[in-house]
Design a protein that fits this description.
About 25% of the residues lie in helices and about 40% in strands. The chain is α+β, with helices and mostly antiparallel strands and about 90 residues long. The chain has a 4-stranded antiparallel sheet. Strands 4-5 form a two-stranded antiparallel sheet. The longest helix is centred in the middle third of the chain and has 12 residues, at about 35-45.
C-alpha cells in the first residue's frame, strides 16, 4: 500500500481553484496511476477531513518548440483530482 504522500503531489493554486474552495472543492495534482478511492483516502489521512466525492481528469502535456530550432519537445502528462468535502476544510496556503 502506498502512503498518502506518494499519491498526492501538490495542490493546484489558481483563481478557479480558489473560487471552488468556497464550495468545499479542492484541486490537487496526483500520480497518474492513482485511483479515486486511493485519492480520497489519502486526502482524509493527510488533512483529517471527510471526503464526499472525488473527480479525476487526465491532463495531456503540451507540445513545445525548444529554442530557435524546429526541435519539438513535450511536457509531461499529469492527473488532476477535484475533491469535494462533506465536512471540514483544508488550509492550502
Amino acid at each position: 500500500m502506498r502512503s498518502a504522500f506518494d499519491i498526492i503531489i501538490a495542490p493546484v493554486v489558481t483563481e478557479k481553484s480558489n473560487a471552488q474552495a468556497q464550495a468545499s472543492k479542492y484541486v490537487f495534482k496526483v500520480k497518474t496511476d492513482a485511483e479515486k478511492i486511493e485519492i480520497g483516502r489519502a486526502i482524509e489521512e493527510l488533512f483529517k477531513v471527510k471526503v464526499k466525492s472525488v473527480n479525476v481528469m487526465n491532463c495531456m502535456g503540451k507540445t513545445r518548440r525548444a529554442g530557435r530550432t524546429n526541435k519539438m519537445g513535450r511536457r509531461a502528462d499529469w492527473k488532476k483530482a477535484v475533491v469535494t468535502l462533506s465536512e471540514g476544510s483544508i488550509e492550502i496556503i
